[in-house]
Each structure stands twice: as structure tokens, then as C-alpha cells.
Amino acid sequence: MDVWILGSAQAVAVKAADLCTELIQRKPDARLGLATGTTPQALYAELIRRNQRGRLSFSRVETFNLDEYLGIGPEHPRSFHRAMRESLFDLVDIDPSNAHLPAGDCDDPATEAEAYEALIGARGGIDLQILGIGRNGHIGFNEPGSSLGSRTRVKTLSRATLRDNQLGEPDFEAPSMAITMGIATILDAGALLVLATGAAKAPAVAAALEGPLSASCPASAIQLHPRATVLLDPEAAAQLRLTEYYALVDRARRRLAADSS
Q: Is 138 annotated as catalytic?
């Protein structure tokens, strides 16, 4: 893992946008895996700014979201379809037919999950998967206890996740189930970009990065990926034990960059 401890949540967003921009400029038809939730919103805002200033185009980019609530349609005000349109898709030049999410209002959720998994494979797989980390260590909606070999499927959400999803939305009763990419699906991506900000994420970040590989912390599966970049602000990194080493790596990285410039 390549762990960056940056100075602020905004610095995390800017660095994440830099990495996404580098990929899209190198590969204009890149396939991005996207996440909803609060953590990636600053990243999306930065990508929108770059797009609107003409520095970045999504015209050939294809996206696949991690998950969607089961039982609500794409026009529901709290669906992830709607959230992604309002926070990114409607504000950049992406082709709407290239923005994919599972259908939460499908008649057969198991078949929809299998079809979504198959679509990712048919399109050539995901080049860069963006991830947040839930306070209980979930990635996507893979709750603690999820199989590390899991594929896209229906999952029941934990009480902790349901409570978190109610924050700031007291009038919204989140559905108790969702369709989510599995952990093995996530690990199939060419690269992972993991974002975490704020003190509330510190225990999960420490467990994911420095704890044992375990289904009790699904985010620990990122330890298995050969190209995982983790961007943290100081609050999210507060419980890490190896911060001195990460700082040493950062200094070496900067020296190499200076030498090659």
C-alpha cells in the first residue's frame, strides 16, 4: 500500500483528483469505480471544477458505482442514482449511458447483481476503484463478516451502517438491504484509491491498514491489492502506529520526484 497522510481533508480531495486526472489524461476511456457517501464529495467537487475549466473531460469515461439501495428507483430522492447525478454526472460532460449503477428497483435482485458483475467484466474491468471506509470497516456495502471472495450480490445492512446513513437525514429511513459489489469484485480493479477523513474513521483506518486481514474488517482486504493508494487527513490517520515510516516513505518519494524532474 502507498499511504499518504496529507494536511487536510481538502488536500486529500485535491490529491485524489490529481490521480484521477492523470489516469483520464493517459487513458481517456478509463473505467472508474465510484463511491457515494460523504467522503468522496470533495473529490467530485474538485473533478467538476477541473472539467468546467476545460482541464479534464469525461466524454469517454465509463463509471461503475459500488452499490445501490434495494427497493427504491433511480428517481427516488435518496437513491444513489440520484445522488451521483446531483453530485457529479449532471455537472460534467459524461455520457449518461456510460454511468452505471445497480438497479435497486429491479424485480429479481439476485439476477440484477449477477448481471452487474457480468457487465463490469464485459466492459473490460475497472481501471481505478475509489473507496471510502465505513466506521465499522465496511467497503461498498460489504459489512463485517462478508466473504473476502464475495462477488456482486444482495447484502443486509448492519445497524451501525443504517445509523450512519440516517445522519443528517432524520426523515429518511434507509432501506435495510442493498446490491453491492463484492470484495473480490473490488480487488479485481486495476488500482484502488482509498479515501478517509475525520476522526470518526480513525479506528477503522487503523484496523484496515495495520490490523490483521479479517472478514471482521472488510476494508482490510485492501492489504491484498498490489496497487492500493490510501489518502488520509491527520484525523483519520491518528490511530496508525507506522506514521513515522509513512513519513519516511513520503520524503523518499519527494526526493525521487525532484531527482527525475
A: yes
